[in-house]
Amino acid sequence: MTALHVINISAALAGGMTAFFVVLLYRRWNQEATAEKKRDIFAAITRSYLHRVAGKLDQGPATPWSNDDKLAAVSHIHLLLRGGERNRLMELAELDGLLRATLRRSRSLRSARRIDAIRLLQQFGSEVCIGRLREIFTRDRNQAARLEAAFALASIHALPPPRETIRILGMFERKSNRLDSALLRASAPQYKDQMIMLLDDPLPNSKLALIIDALGWSEDAAVLPTLERANSFNNSEMRSAALRAAAKIGHPGAAQWVMQSLDDPVSFVRVQAANSCASLGLRDAIPQLLRLKDDDDLWVRLRAQYALDALECAWPNDAMTGAVA
Amino acid sequence: MSGTEIQLVAANAVLYLAFGCFMVVAARNAVSAFQLIIAAWVFATRTRPSKSSSELWQRYGDLALPVSVIAPAFNEELSIVEAVSALLALEYPQHEIIVVNDGSKDNTLGALIDGFDMEKCERTQIAVLQKTKILSTWRSRRHPNLFVIDKENGRKADAANAGIGFARTPLICIIDADSIIEPDGLLRAAEPFMHDDGRLVAVGGTIRIVNGCEVKGGSLRKIGVTKALVPRFQVVEYLRAFLSCRVANAHTNTLLLISGAFGMFRRDVLIEIGGYRHDTVGEDLELVVRIHRHMREQNRDYAIKFVPDIVCWTEAPANLAGIKGQRSRWQQGALETLQRHRKMVFNPRYGRIGMIALPQMILEDIIGPPAEVIGYLVVPAAILLGVLDPIMALAFLALTVLFGTGLSLGSLVLEEVQLRRTSSAHDLYRIGEAALIENFGFRQMNLLYRLRGIGSFYRSDTTWEAVPRVGFGKVK
Questions:
Q1: What does the alpha-carbon distance between residue B203 and residue B185 come to, in Å, rounded to a whole number?
Q2: Cα Rg of chain B, angstroms
Q3: Pairing between strand B262-266 and B200-209?
Q4: What is the 3 state secondary structure string of chain A?
């Protein structure tokens, strides 16, 4: 290669880079220049939808708005509305064909675009959306998209029964994470009986512990006998999960066995028991907690002190339950 | 041997030396180009992060693990109250702020006591990792999640270690007290831990330059780019380092550095490895390399991630004098780390870290700077000796400059398309302009500072040159 070649290549590269940079600058400048107009359009779309939601007459625009602009406005407004108004907004958006574009996007080849669409489908929340979300949840080739669909379904209370959720997401064939736990917790209010049945399945203890923990989010004190039974199992992880669940339910019916767990042979369970005593506001546990201040395990001592501080301040709260080391 | 023969041998030696230096520069550029391509692919295929903090909160509010934010502070009397207020205001369900007053000579502790109604308290230290004495511990009557440790001076590593020892949460976020974390930064940093099945040990974020931005009450009010050239050059450098290099390294599991200005770690792992080392000036790099070493020696499955959307703003040195100390220290820290962990280099036991990441660091930090400097010296010599065509030398210089500028512009494109933390087209232009100008002077000065760092390393220099800063309110 001669010097001339190199100079020519350099010149071509420099020209290309300059052109590219100019395009980048122009793109940004253009967006800035039209920002005010965009804001006006956004405000007009918002006004129009709010009028239509309230049943008022709306003239509509002189020039039609793009679907992308309308979708952006609807995504914004839906966060501000509640109940019937929000449902009407989403119905109107569906009538305007915005859902069609989102459904199309949910079939994109790129998983990132499908995930974007899932988040929008979650906002719409209609039967068509639930159907499409279920389809993604069960058939999408991408695990992240399936998980995202599961979350969308959970947020609109449309998750399938836990056994199906566990199977589809392969939850028990891999190591569990906090999102798995969150999905099971989200299923608990709707499917607590099925979750109790799952406890009789031949599952590893760590998975059973996940289910026991989720029962705490069932918002139903009827699960307390199940939790009490779980608290008598040999596995410490399951006993700990039962204590966490009892604390979440917050029913005094669990007081006796929660306090008994302060004497559990496993330190991690004692830590959880101390937390649960604080969450349940069990002032009767104070003598036992005082004794735990001399426990061999540092974390038990710390949590016992924490629980005592909380009980002496009559300051039980749920936030404490999450702070277990 | 006749004089002509000697001249010929010398000329050939100079030519080969020039060629060798060119090859080193080309290799570094090739690595950077490869990283840029990987980063572009990662950005193009990733799921877009949640746009707003409310969306993040809605998704992860119930799931986020409790975090202790450790902020070592030394002589921060004037800004500490604002900085801590901003940390308390971070959007996170359960976070505790642990400020470590590292033997400040000014009234940093007094400012904290007055500003947050602090009272002395007794608190058990779970692990003693610091080398210096803890003088007292304080808690705020107004903010139950604010805790202050007052200790003897022992530099940042020691202060962070003291904070780690007192932390009780599963996650620890270590920051600089004078850095500004975006309000949703903690939530974004904790997000990967929610998807984690126990492998993830640390998450790093992007560091951006606050010079030119408007800061009020410890929070960023308006993003801007300074007119001053030196901080602007650093904006370009940081874009290249964080949006191209770190993204690519994290994607290939070869990330060696989580910046000391912002990093989230699992507490148990930090305690297991004994926290930061006190005897190095590059403690943040050394920590991550040691985590890799520890996990691989124990055959444990682990991951270290980088999330470009976590943005932490920090003040950059405003002049060359400030950069001199900073870059020398970085260079010295890198060499100290390489020396300490030399056993890992080209050792298959350490997988990609031993076979790719550390050799790349050798190219970048040991061979690269001297080779580039020698290149600048021998090319004119080769021209004078008549063995190199001046036009050819000029042509290759032009190509190298273009390559460097191209890499910077590539990173700028990623920033513009993906993160967009530049406020206007004018700011974008200013950064682009700096990407070109930095090739003529700044890069060469930087090389000299790095050579100075190599000198400090060989002298085992342990003195700490404070980087002069002008403060958020005044940065231009």
A1: 12
A2: 23
A3: antiparallel
A4: CCHHHHHHHHHHHHHHHHHHHHHHHHHHHHHHHCHHHHHHHHHHHHHHHHHHHCCCCCCCCCCCCCHHHHHHHHHHHHCCCCHHHHHHHHHHHHHCCHHHHHHHHCCCCCHHHHHHHHHHHHHHCCHHHHHHHHHHHHHCCCHHHHHHHHHHHHHCCCCCCHHHHHHHCCHHHCCCCHHHHHHHHHHHHHHHHHHHHHCCCCCCHHHHHHHHHHHHHHCCHHHHHHHHHHCCCCCHHHHHHHHHHHHHHCCHHHHHHHHHHHHCCCHHHHHHHHHHHHHHCCHHHHHHHHHHCCCCCHHHHHHHHHHHHHHHCCCCCHHHHHHCC
Q: Is B128 on the interface with A (CB under 8 A)?
A: no
Contact status, residue A216 vs residue A249, Cβ threshold 8 Å = yes
Interior CA angle at B32 toward B28 and B33, to 5°? 115
Q: How far is CA B153 from CA A262, B104, B415, B469, in A?
A: 41, 7, 39, 20
Phi, psi of B313 (to 5 degrees): -100, 135
CB contact under 8 Å between A21 and B399, yes or no, is: no
Q: Which residues of A touch B57 (CB under 8 A)?
A: none
User: Distance between CA atoms of B133 and B127, rounded to whole angstroms?
Assistant: 14
Residues of B in contact with A79 (CB under 8 A): 54
Contact state of A179 with B413 under an 8 Å Cβ cutoff: no
**Cβ count within 10 A of residue A178:** 18
Q: Which of A6, A111, A319 sits opposite B396 (nearest CB)?
A: A6
Please give the ipTM for the structure prediction: 0.83
Q: Is B412 on the interface with A (CB under 8 A)?
A: yes
Q: Is residue A162 over pLDDT 60?
A: yes
Which two tokens mark A134?
A: 């279920």
Contact A156, A125 (CB under 8 A): yes
Point out which residues pair with B214 in neighbouring strands. Answer: B222
Please tell me which of the candidates A79, A175, A323 has its beta carbon nearest to residue B169.
Answer: A323
Q: pLDDT digits over B170-204, tens only? A: 999 999 888 899 988 999 999 899 888 889 999 99
- Is B278 at the interface with chain A, CB within 8 A? no
State whether A10 and B398 contact (CB < 8 Å): yes
Q: Quote the pTM value.
A: 0.89
CB atoms within 10 A of CB B142: 10
Residue type, B265: F
Tell me the count of A-B CB pairs closer than 8 A.
Answer: 106
Higher-pLDDT residue of A193 and A325 is A193
Q: What residues of A are in the B interface, CB distance below 8 Å?
A: 2-4, 6-7, 9-10, 13-14, 17, 20-21, 24-25, 28-29, 32, 79, 110-112, 115-116, 144, 148, 151, 174-179, 181-182, 298, 301-302, 319, 322-323, 325
Residue of A nearest to B432 (CA): A21
**In 3-state terms, what secondary structure has residue B55?**
helix
Yes or no: say if B71 and B95 are a contact pair by the CB < 8 Å rule.
no
B19-47, pLDDT tens digit by residue?
888 899 889 999 999 999 999 999 998 88
Using a CB-CB cut-off of 8 Å, the residues of chain A touching B239 are: none
Cα separation, B293 vs B289, whole angstroms? 6
Could you identify the residue written with the tokens 């190219």? B363
Q: Which residue matches tokens 């109940």?
A: A83
Residues of chain B with pLDDT under 50: 475-476
CB contact under 8 A, B168 and A302: yes
What is each CA distance from B334 to A121, B279, B346, in whole angstroms? 49, 13, 17
Q: In this structure, are residues B414 and B42 in contact, taking their beta carbons and an 8 Å threshold?
A: no
Closest C-alpha to B71, from B82, B59, B62: B82
